[in-house]
Amino acid sequence: MAKIVIIDDEAPILDLIGQFVKKMGHEPFLYQTGREGVEALKQIQPELLIVDLRIGDINGLQIIQDCRLRYPNTEVVMVTGYGSVETAVEAMKLGAFDYLTKPFDLADLQRTINRVLNKDNQAAATAKTSQDSAIRVADASNMIGESTQMKEILRLVEKIADNDSPCLLEGEFGSGKQMIARTIHNASRRQAAPFKVLHCTALPEDLLELELFGSPNGGTHTIFNRAQGGTVVLEEINALPLRLQSQLDAFLEDIGNRRLSGNLPRNMDVRFIATSSIPLEKLVKEGKVREDLYYRISVIPITIPTLRSRKEDIPLLAEHFLKNYAKLTNTSLKEVDKYAMDLLMGYTWPGNVGELQNAIERACAFSEKNRIRPIDLPPKISQKVEISDDENEKMKHHLPIGTKLNEFIKKQEKLFIRETLKYNEGSREKSATMLGVSIATLYRKMGLKLERDKMMG
Predict the structure, then answer these.
(1) Dihedral through CA 328, CA 332, CA 333, CA 338, nearest 10?
(2) Does the global pTM surpass 0.90?
(3) Alpha-carbon Rg of the chain, whole angstroms?
(4) Which one, of 412, 409, 454, 411, lies nearest residue 431 by Cα?
(5) Which of 38, 107, 325, 403 is deepest in the core (most CB within 10 A)?
(6) All domains in the chain, ordered by first residue
């Protein structure tokens, strides 16, 4: 059992980490101010300090610096909710063991704590004796969906989970590339080791180089060092400067050669996954991505489908996000009514799964009586245009924004043909003549619905 000091001015986060640390079998000491936490370090001298970057009275970086100077046997993990990767890199330079960005998975916190306390070897041994690859994929998968595309990706993950070849995930923003990367990691023999993500758009070039390759004087606080035995995900690799692309290509080539020769040092023993929201092949032709790097990282390419191409997954995803919201807020489970679901199914989702998640969370906050209605959805999803009928200004038509033009035209055609059939008491011949189309065209445009109308006539 280890003593772990936790400093965070957000009481819910502080309690959550404290309870989790206790469940792991360690002794947590919780403090909401930096001064209290720093004072406690003298008495407790813990094995680990977990400290938030911004805690009102003292800057977290100052605490890290002081702790490393005064208590060299205490490791430090920094937590930040500000998405400041640049500051996190500064924390690593000051001696922090690692950093986590809010919101983080408790599994990531557990892996980080285990590494600090040298329990990684035991965890890795447990992972090696786990079930076979197919079962691990089923257990580890956090992919939601029954569409053909998602099932195919799941089958592919099963095949390549334990393959150390670089993997390239391409797909629009919000399509779930990091989710797929995490599924690959969780399904592999590396599941007990760290899962580290670096956003190429989050850092200036010099700090990005520092994170990837370390300092010229031999600094070892690179993302590859912190991910020993695990997985490194380089998000939006399309934004990586050309100079660093060359260095990365050489580094990955060195990993491959050393792996083949059986001389792979621990800091290189990682699974490399890259993601891009822009097809890299296109950027290669434009000279924005090095061709040699492209072929190096795309040994296993996976294209993530857009949400609009797998709309059958929307109800399942919505249910998943509803359950997550209920669990997070400790409230009763809400449901989406038919009319709201129709709007969700009809929207084009330019932001993909990420936009759907935000829409569900927003709807939960606005909903009443545990039921999500159209009015609870974001305006861009539920918004409709109201227009007047040219012949009768009192008659209004509501047209849903986001519906594709051809889909809307088809629906209006069917409605108009149906009304014409009713006017002609079900006579197909009269209706076709009145509409100026052939009976064959009438059948084609109405499909099975025409058959029902025929029987009514």
Answers:
(1) -130
(2) no
(3) 28
(4) 454
(5) 38
(6) 3-118 (3.40.50.2300), 129-305 (3.40.50.300), 308-384 (1.10.8.60), 404-456 (no CATH)
